[in-house]
Amino acid sequence: MLRRLAMKKRWFRRGVCLLLLGLWSVGVLGEVKKGKIHELNRDIVLLNLINGLYLTEEQTESLIEKIKEAEEAREVFEKVLEKKEKDFEDVLKDVRDVLLTGDEIPDDLKRRVREMKEVQHRLHDERGEKLINLESEVEGLLTKNQLVTIDSYKPCTIPPAQGKIGQSVETAAEGIARQLSRIRRLPNSRYELMKDMFVDFNMDKMEKHLGFRNPEEKEQYRQQTMDTFEKARHLSDKAFLLQKGELALDLMPEEVKIRRRRKNQFGRVGFFLLDPALIPILETRLKR
Q1: Residues 6 or more apart whose Cβ sits within 8 Å of residue 75
Q2: Distance CA 269, CA 146 (A)
Q3: pLDDT 10s per residue in the chain (288 long)?
Q4: What is the value of pTM for the model shown?
Q5: Which residues touch 177 (CB under 8 Å, ≥6 apart)?
Q6: Which of 268, 163, 252, 164 is closest to 210 using CA atoms?
Q7: CB atoms inside a 10 Å sphere around CB 95
């Protein structure tokens, strides 16, 4: 009994990770980590870049305004999430209660979960669209030589969050292969109860790192994911051992393998020049 309860709690925790994925993935477009060393490193990186751009006074003033607009977009996003927090909490509690009883999640609760995720994705997309548009406006402020400077800039100190963006194909495939191994070990009853959640978890990770061009592409990937899960469960142990790497790669679209720019992800211009830490640096320059 205790073992079954522990398993249910473990699956619940994984489910919660899936449902809250959208809430905690704001780092791509500018969430700032705290800490004096990090702040100093970031200031050095930005100062070295700004020193090489030779911005005019007009460019500097316009850039400050764009950074402030970006900060406002981030703050609006956070405030809306705070207002939705109670609704999200209620949905998660209901999911937890159902999973703890071992019952199948009812259709009405599945609908509420989908609606919650749709709200999360919509908010992320709205913020992302605003910030990406601001990045385009900043690019329009710069000369061709300045854009080349940013594109070729190699900072001596890189903020820790940036290192997570370029996850290798091999590392991602290994993660999927581990997930397939866990799915194979599930009893049929548990798999039938949790398979939609596993598919959604994989879909959310892929959308976070890639995005889908249209609903048709998203639905095609969903079906491919479900088919791969079923194939992994029906292979013999020997066959799965030989094929799990190939199965994992099958769930990675070609665009991922060539590292297509992630959905709602800044390019180098936005990453460096829409950083709020630039405001005091630029304002100091204007006072000279």
Answers
A1: none
A2: 10
A3: 544 544 444 444 444 444 443 433 334 344 444 577 878 888 888 888 898 899 999 999 999 999 999 999 889 888 888 888 888 888 889 889 888 888 888 888 888 888 888 888 888 888 888 999 999 999 999 998 888 888 878 775 443 333 332 334 445 567 788 888 888 988 888 888 888 888 888 877 776 655 666 778 888 888 888 999 999 899 888 888 878 877 887 777 554 444 445 566 788 899 899 999 999 999 998 887
A4: 0.50
A5: 244, 245, 247, 248
A6: 252
A7: 21
**CA 87 distance to own-chain centroid:** 22
User: Are 165 and 28 within 8 A, CB to CB?
Assistant: yes
199 touches 222 (CB < 8 A): yes
16-21's contacts with Cβ under 8 Å and 24+ in sequence apart are 16/92, 16/95, 16/96, 17/201, 18/197, 18/200, 18/201, 18/204, 19/88, 19/91, 19/92, 19/95, 19/113, 19/116, 19/117, 20/88, 20/92, 21/201, 21/204, 21/205, 21/208
Instruction: Please enumerate in sequence order all residues whose Cβ is within 8 A of that of 120, keeping only pairs 6 or more positions apart, or say none.
Output: 22, 23
Report the alpha-carbon distance of residue 125 to residue 269 in Å, rounded. Answer: 19
Q: Name the token pair of 85.
A: 């927090």
